[in-house]
Amino acid sequence: METRQKIARAEWILLGMTGLFLCLLLGLYFHDQSALPPAETEQAAMAEDIRPELERINLNTASAEELMELPGIGEELARRVVEYREANGPFRTVEQLTEVSGIGQGKLAALEGLATVEESE
Fold first, then answer.
1. How far is CA 66 from its chain centroid?
2. Which residues pair with 115 in a beta bridge?
């Protein structure tokens, strides 16, 4: 009987020590996490390093070939943009691109900062 009590006591001591060890590990984990900079900052900095500064493409003067340099704009869509511009005059805003068949809000969002509308000289 006394042997069982010693074994049970040893098990409780071992269980308590395991709990303390896990608490220590958890504390170290949270301490290390608080010392790291936010992940978004790292990703934004990396994206700026990778993505070179691109020259904006003027929707009112760009050829179909130049328009095809924009993300998501292929040969057919570039042709439609040029045809729309010839039929309706120069674009007044970049958002007006959504009036071209095949360009929706998703494609427009991808062009943010890459396309501009300036007066042709």
1. 25
2. 57
**pTM, 2 dp:** 0.55
Tell me the C-alpha distance between 98 and 23, whole Å. 56
Determine the Cα–Cα distance for residues 72 and 36; give it in Å rounded to an integer: 36
Closest CA to 101 of 83, 119, 115: 83
Span 11-40, pLDDT tens digits: 999 999 999 999 999 988 888 877 766 655
Contact 64, 82 (CB under 8 A): yes
**Separation of alpha carbons 119 and 121, rounded Å:** 6
How many degrees, rounded to 5, is the angle at CA 81 between CA 76 and CA 83?
90
